[in-house]
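User: Quick sanity check before I run a bigger batch. Here is a single chain. Can you write out its predicted 3D structure?
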Amino acid sequence: MSTIQNINRIELGVVKLLSQNKLAIFLDIDGTLIPHANHPNNIIVPKNLKFLLYNLRNKLNGALALISGRMVKDIQNIINPLKLSVSGIHGLEYTNELGEYLINDIEPIPLYIYEKLFKFSKNYPGSFIEKKNISVALHYRNAPGMEKKAITFINRLICGSNLKLLKGNKVLELVPKNSNKGNAINFFMKKQAFSNKIPIYIGDDVTDEYGFEFVNNLGGYSIKVGYENNTLANFFIKDTKSVIKFLNFVFFCSKKIRCQSLKF
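Assistant: Done. Predicted structure follows.
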């Protein structure tokens, strides 16, 4: 893979795909559309984000989806009343473009796993457990010193099980081994609205690397929020504000007029 490049280098490609109705966009949420917060419930949704997503979805003829580690119900609360194609819990949950929930036959996390992880977190003030039924996450943004011990503890806890550890931005999540964001994008690419289109995926975290890899294999554009050499992404963008600016660029582009170059 070539050295990661600034996102401005994909402008002409985006304009061409738009003119051919060949563009599909996949977006992570936390750290991509919305800045990280000290608690998942304390995020501040950027002004006009829902309006922008609504217009993008229409411009792309439905080829827009949110790909998140959050539960589908939490994503829907964030974008309510907007209805979008959504994948939650790293490809374990889905909705269609009407916001209708598509049930997955996934067994819940064993109760003993949750109980032991909860007990472990009590030893580290500032950390907390987020139970998602088919996954469980240990958040430690306010207890950063626990990371190494938490990873060791979790790896021992899930040894021999059907679970794996996903390391995110100040969060460690236990999920079934077959779950990742690449699978989530693959699910949507088989749907009519996304079929035969070239995907863009924008994400900021280690868990987004699966999405970057899948998009790269399709000849798409993988975009990392925040510059970093250790990534499969081909392009980078500075921060969440720059992501919103880029999405506005996509929305205002028209095949009938020349799009103004922007610095993201």
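The chain has two domains: 5-103+179-252, 111-176.

User: Great, the batch can go ahead then.
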